[in-house]
Amino acid sequence: MRLELKDLHVHYGKIEAIKGISVVVNEGEIVTLIGANGAGKTTTLKTISGLRKVSSGQILFDGQDISNVPAHERVDLGISQAPEGRGIFPGMTVLENLEMGKFNRKDRKSEMDEDLDKVYTLFPRLKERATQAGGTLSGGEQQMLAIGRALMARPKVLLLDEPSMGLAPQMIANIFRIITEINKTGVTILLVEQNAQQALQRAHRAYILETGNVVKEAKASDLLNDPAVREAYLGTGAH
Amino acid sequence: MINLRDKGAQFWERSNRPVRVLTVFAIVAVVAALPYAGNTFLQTPVAAFDAVLVYPMGMFILMALGLNVVVGKSGMLDLGYVAFFAVGAYTMAILGTRTGLNTWEIMPIGIAAAMFAGVLLAIPTLRLRGDYLAIVTLGFGEIVRVSALNSEAIGGALGIAGVPFPPGLGFEYQLLDQKYFYWTIVVMILLVIWVIRRLTVRRPGRAWESIRQDEDAAELMGVSTYKYKIWAFVFGAAIGGGAGVFYASRSMVIAPDNFTLNTSILILACVVFGGMGNIWGVIVGAAILGYLPDRFRFLSDARLLLFGLVLVVFMNLRPEGILPRKKREKAIVKKGSGA
User: Fold this and answer.
1) pLDDT, tens only, B198-235
2) I want to staple A39 with a disulfide (CB 3.0 to 4.6 A). Which of A120, A209, A234, B295 is the partner?
């Protein structure tokens, strides 16, 4: 299941947020988009999941152009997103949130139990809090819930938008470890991050976005050692 | 203040089946006996008590239940809800005076007409959210009223008179004794409660709930938010339309003046006052707000002042309504606003 963006343009009104980017995510990879605020990372993810409309260009999923498929149908194709700011349902319990992740596959009762088990194994904390309202969870727990909920749809590609945002360092390490684990179960991951250090350590390949353009594409390990990248995004360059 | 909602929920959870059935019967019995309470402190000074039970109280409850699906369950602010009530009422008035059809035959037509109006309003407007949606719906409500006002074919400002009563079902509907109207509306309310409860525990309920809490996230879960929002609108419209049909058939005369913005706002007030999203709260709220102005009619103009005062005091004491929705939502409000 290869995900490919071809010369993608996206506008907010008259402002062009994405200025013709091309990105490839191969099956089984973790690919990360890094870049500063306003570079267009979140917009790119939202366009892939269908929350934003494509102005021109293509989103190819398994060779098929899905840019006109409505967002709620892209879930069924196998694209799930854990949105920025977690986007959980605050008034539903943890369990109800997870069940929502299977909204279109609810009839399959055995699948539900099986996938709940999987999510609870990845995030034991969610099991402890199953009957608690989503809005009462800590930031880290909410992020776990957002990822777990996205997994309930059995995605082929998982889109993660700033999973480390606002979390304590220990929780960040934990979340990134789990992302690698999810990837090992065969889920392709497209990860948007401001925490470039962590993202590059976990990803196979990376794209650097600047004001709506891809300015660099490389193996993640190469970027980790690239002095220019280190200075601009890792904050460990020469001072 | 005592949390009546939790007390009620606790009682319900602790009770076994026979106790629950008994409770339901007891409540229905008390409600059904209300027309006989006319000579007590409940007596309304000007209008007859049994008439007040039908309109405003019963009608308000029906409409508030319908609006609650849109506003309370799905989180879309509709300020033009009276339009659907008007469509139902005009369908009844036109068909009732010009064809041989009776109220029960017109009921499904009126409901269908209101649903159609709901679709007409929903398709172009539901891409809007929040305040923008509120303004467009407000405009829609006014368009319906002003159109009726300017259409001589349906009576213009005078409206339509001579709308027939519903045919009796082994009894006769009477003007001076409105018990049968009241009992009919109680049955309608029970029916609506039953349908709403069925829907809310199933997929539509979950979908509406998720849309209200986070529309984008709902879409990402695979909820066709557009479709379910239209459904909420159309379902709400159906209830408003049904109420309208019955209203016209009982009142015998309808005119555009019966369907002003005021009514939309009053019904919204019932929903908020009772407890948005909780059907029991909405029922209590609508009953109280329907009843009070008639109970204090002897105060003439001051009664509206009193009415406003009651609203202000109560909304301060119980900002989430008399019977708010499930408590766990409280935690979100705190958390959400703090984050």
Assistant:
1) 998 888 999 999 999 999 999 999 999 999 999 999 99
2) A209
Report whether pLDDT(B336) > 60: no
DSSP strand pairing (A188-193 vs A30-35) = parallel
Chain A contact for B129 (CB, 8 A cutoff): no
Selecting from A93, A136, A153 the residue whose C-beta is nearest the C-beta of B222 gives A153
| CA–CA dist B133, A53 (Å, integer) | 21
Nearest to B90 by CA among B53, B144, B140: B144
Judge: B335–A149 Cβ closer than 8 Å, yes or no. Answer: no
Q: Residue A184 and residue A90: Cα distance in Å, rounded?
A: 30
- Does pLDDT of A239 surpass 50? no
Residue B64 in contact with residue B270, Cβ under 8 Å? yes
pLDDT of residue B308: 86
- Phi, psi (5° rounding) for residue B157? -70, -25
A130 or B44, higher pLDDT: A130
Alpha helices in A62-108 (DSSP H): 71-77, 94-100
Task: Write out chain A residues lying below 8 Å of B208, CB-based.
Answer: none
Residue B203 falls within a domain, yes or no? Answer: yes
| B318 assigned to some structural domain | no
Question: Which residues of chain A are within 8 Å of residue B224 when distances are taken between CB atoms?
Answer: 70, 72
Separation CA A105–CA B124 (nearest Å)? 30
Instruction: Tell me the domains of chain A and their CATH numbers.
Output: 24-51+69-78+155-239 (3.40.50.300), 82-154 (no CATH)
CB atoms B223 and A103 under 8 Å: yes
Q: Is B203 on the interface with A (CB under 8 A)?
A: yes
**Dist CA B238 CA B115 (whole Å):** 5
What φ, ψ does residue B324 adopt, rounded to 5°? Answer: -70, 165
Of A51, A80, A100, the CB nearest to B210: A100
Alpha carbon of residue A91 to chain centroid: 23
**Residue B73 with chain A: CB contacts under 8 Å:** none
- Mutate one of A72, A84, A86 to test the B interface: name it (highest B CB count within 10 A): A72
B178 touches chain A (CB under 8 A): no
User: What pTM did the predictor assign?
Assistant: 0.89
Q: What digits encode the pLDDT tens for the residues A54-97?
A: 999 999 999 999 999 999 999 999 999 998 777 899 999 999 99
CA dist., res. A32 & res. B13, Å (int): 49
Chain A residues close to B203, C-beta within 8 Å: 103, 106
**Distance of alpha carbon A202 from alpha carbon A199, whole angstroms:** 5
Residue B336 to residue A101, Cβ atoms within 8 A = no
CB contact under 8 A, B217 and A89: yes
Tell the residue number behind the tokens 């923008």, with chain if given: B132
Domains in chain B, number: 1
**B300 is a domain residue:** no
Residue owning tokens 């709901």: B118
Cα separation, B272 vs A61, whole angstroms? 46
Could you list the residue range(s) of the whole structural domain that residue B60 is in? 53-260
Q: What are phi and psi of A168, to 5 degrees?
A: -70, 150
pLDDT at B174: 87
Tokens 């007590």: give the residue: B40
